[in-house]
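One example given next:
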Amino acid sequence: MKFSWKKLYLISIFIIVLNILVGCKSHQHTLGDYTYDAYLHWQECMDCHEKVNHVYHTYGTWKIEKEPTETEEGLRRQACSACGFSKTETISVTAHQHVYGAWEFEVLPSLSNPGKIKRACSIDITHIQEVEIPVLNRTFYRYKILREPNCGEKGIEIYSFSRDGQTLEIRRDMPLTEHSYAPSWTSNSLGHWHQAICEHSTLRKDFEAHTYRNGFCTVCGWEETVQEHICEYGAWELIASPTLESLGEIKRICKTNDTHVEYKELPLLNDKDYEYEILEESSCSERGKAQYTITVEEQTFTFLVELSLSDHSYGVEWVTDNRYHWHQATCIHTEEKQDYALHEFENGRCKICDYIGYSEGLVYEMNEDHISYRIIGLGSFSEKELVIPGAYQGLPVTKISSAAFKNCTFIEKIRVLDGVLEFGDSAFMGCISLQSIEMPSTLKIVGSSCFEGCRSLKSFHGNDGLEQVKDSAFKNCTQLSSISLPNSLMLLGKFILDGCSTIEFKAYDNGIYLGNQENPYLIFYKANDTLIRTCKLHESTKFIADSAFNECRSLKSIVIPDQVTTIGSNSFYYCVSLEYIILGQGVTRIEQAAFGKCTALKSLFYMGNKEEFQKIEIGTNNSFEHIYFYAEHPSSSEEWTFDENDKPVPFQ
């Protein structure tokens, strides 16, 4: 039989195709339990590990697990109907519907002080509503006189008003009126007087003895009679007791003729005509007692008087909340308030009680130390005056973050309260409407470009304690005319006043200075011009600013006093005639290129020793061919002293 390669080839192809078809037969998965995450669930084949049924959860209805109350949130749960995964969420506390009781007075108003009323929720007495009411007047209140006053009884006046259908009344006593007297004289043989015609008919005034002329009184016309009977009077009897407002009266009767009666007025109670003694002092809750004693012809009369209640005693210091200030009573009536009034804010501070308010809506962020905050932005704040607090939620606010208020064009005034330590870089950059800023006494750092472009800012007065003012801090503050930097300054950045053309400097010798009221020469800012040959630095100078002597090509020497600590970058750059420098012992830092391109500079004479000089931080592009160290008694070629003209004399 002849072998056929063609048949063998066809059989091989058939076997290969058959194996492929058998291998492609579908696999029956053996599935395990559902696996899930917060969004999806699926099952995995236990043989081939393929994931199937990979879909989103299908949730059923919510089930309440905990009902909410007025004070606590509730909880509800929702489960997937396929895999059993469940999620929970809180239910907000339920709202409380206040049911208020009647209004009552918390503070009674007077003619000079406002009052306050309050009412409490009958369901929850901790919910109290308070309303201020004005001083007593006849515009806000309805007014009527319940009883007119007279000389014997005080009147009653009523001020009333209505609120929420309820009428509230304030009753006040009206003072006694004056007694009324007859205009004509009443007379007897002893004298004449005006008799009271009010209910106090026994009272008299203007009593005086007759003044006779030709047998008649020149005042009342009483006819003079011859005394036929010599009276023998008994003891004086009290007819009417004197008071603080009315006279008293006593009388005595003749023992032999009772038709002869003598009357005498007693003066108003006072501490001149009477002996006065306080038996019990008054308080604000209990009346005291006083005793008045008068002697008439060796006969003594004593009168006890109940004293008025004393005024409440109040503390000297103001008590405040975020709206009001007042003086709190220090007596037993601790609820009493005096001078209760709304704050009168000016620049965030009450003009009356000095209460400090601050701006709301700012955004805060916890610092890395977890015990203080920083402000990172405006938030919802949109007012012209910004008051930054020194504390937030009971913790200090120590920093205003970089760019926190950058380009806030509407802010005109800023007041930063004590506690803030640092203004970050560009913190107020571009605040073009900012006119003034009140600094905290705690501030230590003003960051780079902090106020750059604040073209309306007119002055800056750094607090005592400020240590660093960094690069370009006030760059392009075109209206800045007054700047004060304290003696505590330790670091002065570059270009802090670039573009500030209106600054008022302090002049001395051939230079201009910045500083403060105590030391106006703190910073040597700039030479008068580049043509100067000499310049004597003030002995109180601490900083030589960047580029201060830049390109002063005729300057040959400079003496830097011991008080100077920092020589700024490029400060003597391109001073091509500068031959030598006398460097004070206080210098700690010489910035980059401070003496760059000083091609004639050969010698630097240092007021300290070699070890001290080696501690100075010297930036790049500063080189000195010869360095000499001062000694009163020279012992080597590295020491020097002064000649009679105060010129340095090195020892060779």
